[in-house]
Amino acid sequence: MKAEIGVIGGSGFYSLLEGAETVNPDTEYGKPSDPITIGTIKGRGVAFLSRHGARHRIPPQNVPYRANIAALKGLGVKRIIATNAVGSLNPGFKPGEFAFFDQYVNMTHGRKDTFFDKDVVAHISSADPYCGELRALGVGTAERLGIKVHGDGTIVVINGPRFSTRAESMFFSRQGFDLINMTQYPEVALAREQSICYLGIGLVTDYDVGLEGRSEIAPVSAAEVGKIFNRNIENAKRLLLELIPEIPERRGCSCGSALDGAILSH
To answer: What DSSP line would sit under 172-189, residue for residue?
Structure first.
């Protein structure tokens, strides 16, 4: 069974799929985080993958990002919609709101972050790493559903699994970054290397370590993230159910030609 759209997120999204079946693909980069469930949403073929695996057992620094993207590509996926719990570094991005990323800053280390690490040299453009076509559709859909949404935002990606110190969080905020997360990189970059459109949706759960001058805002905790994220899941499901049928079958973006001119090896 093939799928045209991939969804990467938490286990709460399985229930969206009709006629679902599970496959357990293998790739040259190993197995993905979890078996992949394939089904349909209003007639569109969708493959769902839990990023952290069953029971959230895989920490962010150990997620098999290359295997995940390669497995979805092998199933025919040309577009990925990914949901992420994110912290806010900007008082304008409030817990409970959604954000559609347009830029990322990578602060991770030691992750396998390219498919071109052997015999092929490729320098892919990352100027605009997120699919503009999908982002515009997502924003419009969220607004119609009455979901408070930010149409863009820069996310800084840290290695984890620990949360930031106060000094780190203040540094990121003063750089002008809006959001913080542990899993957006290298997922989005690897999707681009495979010419897959990628839409990153942040479900804002907290204010990281708090906001300057606001002593009443406590630093983030895992329990608080889980509580707010679970509250946002229902809105995320509503969004996906409405957004996926709206996606045109033919891509009107440049993501499919991301590799043009990037490969230098002969």
So the answer is: HHHTT--EEESSHHHHHH
